[in-house]
Amino acid sequence: MYLNLGCGDKATHGRAPWVNVDSWPGCEPDVVADILHLDFEDNCAEMIYAGHVIEHLDYTGQVPLFVAELARLLSPGGQVLVVGPDAEKVRSRPEWSDWVERVDEGSTEHPGSLHLWKATGEATVKAMRECFPEAREVDIRTPAGFWPIASRVEWQFAVFGKDI
Fold this sequence. Notes:
Elements: E1 2-5, E2 18-22, E3 31-32, E4 45-51, H1 62-73, E5 74-85, H2 100-105, H3 121-128, E6 136-138, E7 156-160
Parallel strand pairs: 1-2, 1-4, 2-3, 4-5
Antiparallel strand pairs: 5-7, 6-7
């Protein structure tokens, strides 16, 4: 199984074989579920993608639970990729200044769309290493095209929990 966790609106859904999961039914996911408590078997996913979801979780309380859930679901030899807005990178170039507030705060479009922490690749790697010791950040343009990345804008981080 290929899981797309926090799939968001239909425009960012992965195509088959991705199973799109989100807690907000309005985005019409394949599965409506809380990503901290997923009703899938252990080791069921060959690939797990979590795009722009980790920043919506409390860093000290929920992020460790989320990373543990990723580790529970991932099959041996599987891959996990977490992508999000990097609060430090977005400040690094003047042309991205219009995005700073959105990266810091999120939005009020629907329940759960606020950002609960100013995510960075470095902090995400640190959190991921609790369950994935080999976690590492890569350039957002590095992951192959089969990952359901909606945009490869460079102020995002991409963290592999398992090496590619």
